[in-house]
Design brief:
The protein is an all-alpha fold. The chain is about 65% helix and about 0% strand. The chain has one domain. Keywords: Membrane, Transmembrane, Transmembrane helix.
């Protein structure tokens, strides 16, 4: 029920509590027009994170896709809608299925997602996103964007929900893994847990 409640609260926040700001949204307009230099680096890094979190969930969920509902549609949709797509799966679809003993994910994809190559790709993407902050960022500018832009407001709340979900998913799907506390590092943490417990990842 907790995931359902968070999902409803997230929808309510996006629909009723997030600031309307200017129309069209200035941050969204700058992203669409490619004028990324006009966006504060921290805002841009958080925006990019919303594309990296789903890749982590795609990896974790597809490696363990034997629940009541198929995980892949929710994981793929999260690339565009973040926690709005993942929360219903964790609320209802991630229940053990008595009739399913094998994963839905093809073996070749399981091998790829559990490979050192893919985990390194995720680490490099995280590092590249973090390097954008070296341009210099302003917490004051982020705070201003949060209250002026509906996009920044919603994506900030979404970021924290995804962060919490990623920690939960790591503990949920890798109960025997060592150093699970690393999962608290946003995005990189779950990847490091999989890297350090490579021998415990599903292979087929």
């Amino acid at each position: 029920m907790i995931f359902l409640l968070i999902w409803l609260l997230l929808i309510a926040y996006a629909a009723f509590l997030a600031p309307e700001g200017e129309s069209p949204d200035p941050v969204f307009s700058n992203i669409l027009s490619g004028e990324w230099g006009e966006i504060d680096p921290l805002v841009f890094a958080v925006f990019n994170s919303l594309g990296l979190f789903p890749l982590v969930f795609l990896t974790i969920l597809l490696l363990h896709d034997r629940g009541r509902w198929p995980a892949w549609p929710f994981a793929l949709l999260s690339l565009g809608t973040g926690a709005f797509s993942l929360l219903p799966y964790f609320a209802f679809g991630d229940k053990p299925s008595k009739s399913r003993t094998k994963k839905r994910t093809p073996r070749w994809l399981v091998r790829f997602l559990s490979s050192r190559f893919w985990l390194i790709v995720l680490m490099l993407m995280w590092t590249g996103n973090l390097l954008t902050l070296l341009q210099g960022f302003s917490l004051a500018a982020y705070r201003e964007a949060y209250f002026d832009s509906g996009l920044v407001s919603v994506m900030t709340v979404d970021w924290f929900v995804l962060w919490g979900l990623s920690v939960y998913a790591t503990y949920r799907f890798f109960p025997d893994a060592s150093r699970k506390a690393l999962a608290w590092i946003p995005i990189l943490g779950p990847v490091l847990v999989m890297w350090l417990n490579k021998n415990k990842l599903p292979k087929n």
